[in-house]
Specification:
The chain has about 750 residues and is of the alpha+beta class. It contains 29 helices and 15 strands. The chain is about 50% helix and about 10% strand. It is extended. It comes from Myotis lucifugus.
Length: about 750
């Protein structure tokens, strides 16, 4: 007992009561009409409606956010009694995520709550409603910061996520972007009266997570410009007709995602957006072409046929860039871009093709001071016409391999019969639901990979090769399924052995085609690949059975179609200048002769490089001038150096000998990376190497750009206007290559 007769418990309770009284004096928020402080802990509050005890935070950092969330979750019916105060509070950004996840299904059905006094607007969506959010977006890394859509500056809205405002955003606009505030005219948002039809944008606003839907973006608004640009990109990338923007489903989607956005008409995209995008991308590619090392650009060209039997002439550029402004941190030095596509007549001639190509070369290459390099094509008439003229052309290696293998397959009737049986069997399985189910059961029973059979395309031997490989993989299941399903096509034991031999013979040719069709393959790999395939054919005579006729045809076709390539100077120089091969594939006599040829080629390059344009298209040797316009003294020093006592004949020979004496690199190394490192030590030899190593051996990478969408027929739709079709193809190919930066 204390002296005054009170117990310690009574004293402690009295102290807590006095502390609570002091705290209550500081409680100004109207949310305290629904809560009271816990009698034993001032950091907690008790709900007056359900008596739940709710923590307000830790000591020194307490707030009412959790109390508002509790009312929003458990007692939404009391919100209207506060004359809209809690409804407006809960619509602020700190509470939007909770509201949208827990109450969207309930609140979208009841956009307003009617009380006895008057109807009060209920927050149908918890998201920022200030017009300032038309000019800012929340930073994904830090929700307390925003990014200005006009200048890209990052602005802090406060330190505590529960106490963020928009005053700083308004000050930023007033200080840096005062002009945009004049275009924003405030409007009052009122609830729709009962019985009045609500537009789609207002109907979906309860589920939408965007801004005030009553105010449309002006045309120059950064968000509107970005959406329009993305729609134009979609039209080009997917080759959609311009009438696509009138589709009802697409318009409903946009109205839901961004009700403030007004979609332009199809004529805007066809007359303004796409032509403007085409001009911008074209300028970027032309500036990128000027970065070509040694000022040489190579090309792949061919005739592409659409699914509407229209024929198009295509021209794709390939060059090497060590320091690119478009791809500043990219380790891949191989660059490419589609320059032009043009529809041609079915009865085209070699001369008409040559005139079209020369017109494109003038517009893209020679007019900027660059040089036309080697043109790779799979069309014999194009190659013959170019070689007869002043241009250099080589045959596509992958196309040549296709001709060799097709000839070999047709040379042996037994192989053709085997492919016919396999083709019919796969077709029957793919069409029969019962056969598919039986095959799946047998795959599980015999623990085979659950793969589907492959139906080949008779004109493409590599698809026939993959079809046979899949049948061999599923041999056990195929045999049993064929018997149980009463198939007429039964594969005998001898045919299985022949099938294995055919696959074994075709496998190195399939690997060679894939290797030479990669993005980073170069002209230097052709001679090594020819030697590898010839050696492999000699080994196949001992490793296979029943296909000797096919192997003899392969060997004869390799000689007739590729023997000239082994003595072509362009392929020889490319192989010598590849640090992975050098002179290792040539005899001693050939190596000595080719070494002297390389030295002479380097001397010719050094003698002509003083008079021709350099890689960036600027004229070399032009004297620099100071502010007074007089010739710089240092340019005279450069002339004195050129006339010095150094022996010009000795420098190229020393470069070549030093290079050939180094060890050969591994096959996995990139030759262009090697020459980038040697550029300062051997500038002339590095420039010569880039001239040959920048040329691809195949046009397959370019063909892939035109073959992917043919399944859905999007390349030849009649609703596409042909004058726009060529621009759309140009954008479809090049937009990803420049990373959509235009």
């Amino acid at each position: 007992q204390q002296g005054d007769g009170s117990s310690p418990h009574m004293v402690e309770s009295g102290v807590i009561f006095q502390q609570n009284q002091k705290v209550m004096k500081r409680l100004k928020s109207e949310v305290w009409h629904h809560f009271s402080l816990a009698p034993m802990d001032s950091l907690k509050a008790v709900c007056r409606h359900c008596s739940c005890v709710i923590s307000r935070g830790k000591k020194g950092d307490v707030g009412t956010s959790c109390l508002m969330r509790h009312l929003y979750r458990r007692h939404p019916e009391v919100v209207g009694n506060q004359k809209g105060f809690l409804g407006a509070s809960l619509a602020n950004p700190p509470y939007n995520t909770l509201a949208s996840t827990e109450t969207s299904s309930k609140l979208t059905d009841l956009p307003a709550v009617v009380t006895k006094s008057r109807p009060v607007l209920f927050p149908v969506h918890s998201k920022k409603t200030s017009k300032l959010w038309n000019h800012f977006s929340v930073c994904s890394a830090d929700p307390t910061k925003v990014v200005c859509l006009h200048c890209g500056r990052t602005i802090s809205r406060g330190k505590k996520p529960t106490n963020l405002g928009t005053s700083c955003l308004l000050r930023h606009l007033q200080r840096f972007h005062g002009s945009v505030l004049k275009t924003d005219v405030p409007k009052t948002m009122l609830p729709s009266p009962p019985g009045v039809s609500v537009p789609l944008s207002a109907e979906l606003s309860g589920a939408s997570s965007f801004d005030n839907t009553d105010e449309k973006f002006y045309d120059s608004h950064p968000v509107a410009k970005k959406i329009t640009s993305l729609i134009a990109e979609m039209i080009a990338l997917d080759l959609q007709p311009y009438s696509f923007v009138d589709n009802v489903g697409f318009n409903r989607l946009l109205e839901y995602l961004k009700p403030q956005y007004s979609l332009p008409s199809p004529s805007y995209f066809s007359r303004t957006a796409i032509p403007g995008m085409y001009d911008n991308v074209k300028q970027i590619i032309m500036s990128h072409l000027k970065e070509a090392e040694s000022g040489v650009v190579h090309f792949t060209s061919g005739i592409w046929m659409s699914n509407q039997t229209r024929e198009y002439l295509t021209l794709t550029a390939h060059w090497v860039t060590f320091e690119s402004s478009v791809r500043p941190h990219c380790e891949d030095h191989h660059c490419s871009a589609l320059l032009d596509v043009s529809q041609i007549d079915c009865d085209y001639s070699g001369n008409s093709i040559q005139k079209q190509l020369e017109c494109w070369w003038e517009a893209w290459v020679t007019s900027t001071g660059l040089q036309v390099g080697i043109t790779v094509t799979d069309n014999p008439s194009i190659g013959k016409t170019l070689n007869e003229g002043e241009h250099s052309s080589v045959q596509c290696f992958s196309h040549t391999v296709n001709l060799i293998v097709n000839e070999a397959i047709k040379s042996q009737r037994m192989v053709q019969n085997l492919l016919s049986i396999a083709r019919k069997l796969c077709e029957r399985v793919l069409r029969s639901h019962a056969a598919k189910e039986k095959l799946a059961e047998l795959q599980k029973e015999y623990e085979l990979p659950p793969h589907h059979l492959i139906q080949d395309v008779p004109s493409k031997w590599n698809t026939s090769f993959h079809m046979l490989e899949r049948l061999i993989e599923q041999k056990r299941a195929i045999n049993e399924m064929s018997i149980e399903c009463n198939f007429r096509e039964l594969i005998s034991c001898d045919q299985w052995e022949v099938m294995k031999s055919v696959c074994h013979a075709l496998k190195p040719f399939d690997a060679a085609s894939r290797e030479m069709s990669s993005h980073m393959s170069t002209l230097s790999q052709v001679i090594p690949m020819i030697h590898i395939l010839n050696r492999k054919i000699d080994m196949l005579f001992e490793e296979t059975m029943g296909i000797d006729t096919m192997l003899k045809s392969l060997k004869e076709a390799m000689v007739s179609r590729l023997s000239a390539t082994l003595h072509d100077p362009r392929y020889i120089f490319a192989t010598l200048l590849d640090p992975r091969y050098k002179a290792s594939l040539f005899s001693e006599e050939e190596a000595e002769q080719y070494k002297q040829d390389l030295i002479r080629e380097l001397e010719m390059l050094n003698s002509t490089s003083e008079d021709i344009a350099v890689s960036n298209g600027c004229a070399p040797g032009s004297p620099s001038r100071d502010s007074s316009g007089d010739e710089s003294l240092w340019s005279l020093m450069a002339k004195i150096k050129k006339k010095g006592p150094r022996e010009k004949m000795k420098v190229p020979e020393a470069m070549v000998l030093s290079y050939l004496e180094e060890e050969v690199l591994e096959h996995s190394c990139d030759p262009l990376t090697y020459w980038n490192l040697k550029k300062s030590a051997w500038p002339g030899l590095s420039a010569l190497a880039v001239r040959f190593l920048g040329c691809p051996p195949s046009i397959v990478p370019s063909e892939r750009l035109f073959s992917t969408p043919t399944e859905n027929g999007s390349f030849g739709q009649s609703r596409l206007m042909m004058e726009h079709f060529e621009k759309l193809i140009f954008l479809k190919v090049n937009l990803p290559l420049i990373y959509f930066q235009y």
